[in-house]
Design goal:
Length: 341
């Protein structure tokens, strides 16, 4: 059966006190596009609601007019998304929203949160015993305050049954695209990604930080920062220490010393992690791409080289990694992230 032939879904986004505008606007734009591209799958427009209605001011100062949460009939909702932001983890300031979620959340077919919106779901008891994530800055705090929640600190987004939580900010777009794919099919989700000029539709099993972003955040050296960006664009090439040193204008010994000092790992280990990051992305985002092609694109040369890299770092074969993701997607749930060794 065509997924878009199901009954139209009514979606609402809750705008709590202290939200960040992009946590709301990202999913809102995804679902609005979905309503136009798959009108049989979605009831339009998406409702934006808040306690008491009226004006909600985002952390950036942007003011938004929202409908009253109290006027929402839970029986008409298929999905409620709780937006987050730097002030949303203040549960006391959002006590009325938490109370509404506690009363009506268990009966909703699907709940989602972006960033610190997970705090409101947790405060309402909706995440007890569930896997969940939030923005990397708040994962430790979420785990401390709500020990019954199984926090996954490095996941881009996590699906556990009918509850979906996203890391934060642009990860809300990734989560919304995954929900659209489950509702209306992959073609619709990819078309929305193109319309929004999203470079990649990142799967939830991907980490919040790529190897390149983690590295760039740790160095003050412009040469090393440029080298990390260059590596990402040349994964299929010669990335030996000698080649990297030549690109950076250093001796191999100086490069190895400075790279290890700034990044806490050798150039060789970094290259291996960057190649593995890209291989994981290709396996999940291009499910029909042959393993040999994936291997060639990331510089692992052969399918066997790809298998060895996966087994060595992740303890799972690339075929199994891809198959687990495909199975979970058919069930409407994302593959749990595999922790690097």
């Amino acid at each position: 059966m065509d997924p878009s032939a199901r009954l139209p879904r009514r979606i609402a986004i809750l705008a709590p006190s202290g939200l960040q505008s992009l946590d709301l606007a990202g999913p809102l734009e995804v679902f609005n596009h979905a309503g136009r591209l798959a009108p049989r799958a979605y009831a339009s427009p998406v409702a934006v609601v808040g306690v008491g209605g009226g004006v909600v001011t985002a952390s950036s100062g942007l003011r938004m007019l929202v409908d009253p949460l109290e006027d929402v009939d839970p029986a008409t909702l298929q999905t409620l998304v709780v937006a987050g932001g730097p002030g949303v983890h203040d549960v006391e300031a959002n006590a009325a929203a938490v109370d509404w979620l506690r009363r009506h959340g268990p009966g909703l077919p699907r709940l989602a949160s972006v960033c610190t919106g997970a705090y409101l779901l947790a405060a309402a008891g909706l995440l007890d015993g569930r896997r969940a994530t939030t923005h990397w800055k708040y994962t430790a705090s979420l785990a401390r305050r709500y020990p019954a929640v199984r926090v996954e600190p490095d996941a881009l987004f996590v699906d556990d049954g009918n509850i979906h939580t996203a890391a934060g900010v642009t990860a809300g777009i990734d989560l919304a695209l995954a929900l659209v794919e489950a509702d209306a099919g992959r073609a619709v989700a990819l078309e929305i990604a193109r319309l929004l000029v999203v470079y990649l539709r990142r799967p939830g099993g991907q980490a919040q930080f790529s190897a390149a972003l983690r590295a760039q955040s740790r160095t003050a050296s412009e040469r090393l920062e440029a080298l990390v960006a260059w590596i990402a664009d040349h994964l299929d090439g010669d990335l030996s220490v000698e080649a990297l040193a030549d690109q950076a204008g250093m001796s191999p010994r100086t490069l190895a010393r400075q790279f290890t000092r700034d990044f806490g790992q050798s150039p060789g280990r970094y290259v291996a992690a960057a190649r593995l990051d890209e291989a994981r992305r290709l396996l999940l985002d291009a499910p029909d791409l042959p393993l040999a092609t994936v291997a060639a694109r990331v510089g692992l040369e052969t399918a066997e080289g790809l298998r060895q890299a996966f087994q060595r770092s992740l303890g799972v074969a690339p075929e199994a990694f891809r198959r687990q993701f495909a199975t979970a997607r058919r069930r409407g749930a994302e593959t749990p992230p595999v922790a690097p060794a």
